[in-house]
Recover the amino acids of this structure.
């Protein structure tokens, strides 16, 4: 089931027959309650994870700052993804899970409107993880200023739901 098009699954909805990009017209679609959950993870050194757990990172509370960044990104997705519609965000939830060598972030976005919110959830995940990286980069880089143990990966949409109003 596609939120953007009732046509074929291989049809590009953001491209005209002439090959020009376009925003999909959702004006005639009914409003629906929508929910999307996305996740991703950042690999870090175990000593960095310990510092985050102990609130020992010099820049401040890493997860609180990343949560704010994720929520801000959700609200501003339409400004950074060219063909995304500006949608009314009704709820954002962020959940961090810390392991020995990584942090997973799951972002849930809810809206009531004419188009889905999976791009907003993905933007929340990637920005939240980028904020973590920014907060810990001083302790993650090696003697050459590189980040051999740091990486953002496995960013994906976990679920996408729509309920007709």
């Amino acid at each position: 089931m596609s939120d953007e098009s009732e046509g074929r699954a291989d049809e590009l909805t953001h491209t005209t027959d002439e090959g020009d990009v376009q925003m999909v017209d959702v004006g005639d679609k009914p409003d629906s309650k929508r929910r999307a959950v996305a996740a991703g993870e950042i690999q870090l050194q175990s000593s960095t994870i310990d510092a985050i757990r102990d609130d020992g990172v010099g820049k401040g509370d890493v997860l609180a700052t990343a949560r704010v960044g994720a929520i801000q990104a959700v609200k501003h997705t339409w400004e950074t993804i060219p063909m995304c519609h500006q949608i009314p965000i009704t709820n954002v939830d962020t959940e961090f899970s810390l392991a020995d060598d990584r942090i997973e972030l799951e972002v849930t976005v809810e809206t009531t409107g004419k188009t889905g919110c999976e791009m907003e959830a993905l933007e929340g995940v990637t920005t939240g993880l980028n904020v973590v990286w920014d907060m810990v980069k001083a302790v993650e880089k090696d003697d050459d200023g590189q980040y051999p143990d740091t990486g953002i990966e496995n960013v994906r949409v976990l679920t996408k739901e729509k309920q007709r109003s």
Q: What stands out?
A: The radius of gyration is 18 Å. The longest strand covers residues 151-164.
